[in-house]
């Protein structure tokens, strides 16, 4: 991350019930004018989005209760 001593590295994740729900939720979020930091009245982003890392993962193990 090449974080400086003044910066804090944060880790988080979101679980979606399925890909269709994720796609619909992401589309709705991206279309929401409140998510546009360049829109008048919206606060600036609190982090450098160019340094954000994200990805999707396929489930490889499922744990079931007996």
Uncertain segments are none
Overall shape: it is: flat
Overall number of strands: 0
Largest sheet, if any?
A: none
Order of helices and strands: H
Gyration radius from CA atoms, angstroms: 17 Å
Pfam families: DUF1428
Organism: Pseudorhodoferax aquiterrae
Region (Disordered): 30-49
Protein name: DUF1428 family protein
Topology:
Elements (H helix, E strand, L loop, with lengths): L18 H13 L35
Structure, described:
By secondary structure, the chain is mainly α. It has one domain. The protein is 20% helix and 0% strand. It has one helix at residues 19-31.
Please give a handful of descriptors for the protein shown:
mainly alpha
Short characterization:
This is DUF1428 family protein. The chain is mostly helical. It has one helix spanning 19-31.
């Amino acid at each position: 991350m090449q974080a400086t001593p003044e910066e804090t590295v944060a880790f988080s994740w979101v679980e979606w019930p399925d890909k269709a729900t994720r796609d619909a939720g992401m589309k709705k979020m991206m279309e929401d004018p409140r998510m546009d930091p360049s829109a008048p009245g919206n606060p600036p982003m609190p982090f450098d989005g160019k340094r954000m890392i994200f990805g999707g993962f396929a489930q490889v193990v499922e744990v079931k209760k007996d």
